[in-house]
Amino acid sequence: MNDSIVKEHDVYIESPGWIGLIYKEPIPLYLPDKMYKHDDWLGIAEKDLQNYQTNPNSSASPPLFILTKVSKEFNVSSDNFALNLELQNTADRVQAPCRLINIMLLGSEGVINIPLSAPGCVGELKMMLGKKTIDGALNNLSALGVDFTKPVRFSCTAVFNKISINLNGRVAYEGPFDSGIGKIVGIRVAFKGSGQMKFIELKNAI
After folding, report:
1. Which of 7, 42, 109, 151 is in the most buried spot, having the most CB atoms within 10 Å?
2. 38-77 pLDDT, tens digit each
3. Model-level pTM?
4. Which long-range contacts link 43-50 to residues 24+ away (Cβ below 8 Å)?
C-alpha cells in the first residue's frame, strides 16, 4: 500500500540558543532577548513579567515562564549524563505560594521531568523519569521541597542504570533508571511566576 510506513525518525527543531516564553493557549508568547538574557543569568524579573500578563491584576495567578533550548550540540546519552545548574523561583505574590519549578530533559525517546516546590506543596508534585511516574500524593517527595528565598544548586546524574537528584549538595532522590530516554536533545525549565537560572552544565557523568 502507498500509505504504509517504511521508516520513522525523530525530527527536532533546534533553537538559536536559549528561548524565553510565556505559556499561553493556543500560541505561546515569545519574549525579546533583552527581557530574559542578562549578564550572568537567564530569567525574568517579577516587574517585567507583570507587563506580559493577560490579567495584570496583582491578585491573579502568575503565568508560566519557560526557558528552553534544543540543540544537537548536547550530544549526551540519558544512560550517562550529569546536569548541573543553579536556579530560583523569585515570585513574591501570595497567589504563588508553591513557587513551582519544573526541570525537564527532552530525549529522543521520552522525557525526564523533575518538579521542585516550596516544602508545603510537595504532595502536588509529579516526577517523571522516562516511563516511570512518581506521584507526590502517593510517594514521599518531601526532599524536593526547597527554600527559594535563595538560589538552589541542582544536579541530576544518571549512570549504571541509576539516577540521583541532589539539591544544595544533599541527595533528594535516588532510584533505578533502567529505561532511559535516548539521546538528550533539549532542556526546558518552567517557573510558575518569575525566576532565574545560571551555571548551566550538561555533560557525560563518566
Report:
1. 42
2. 999 999 998 898 877 656 555 668 899 999 999 988 889 9
3. 0.90
4. 43/67, 43/90, 43/191, 43/194, 43/195, 43/196, 43/197, 44/20, 44/194, 44/195, 44/196, 45/90, 45/194, 46/90, 46/91, 46/92, 46/93, 46/193, 46/194, 48/194, 49/22, 49/193, 49/194
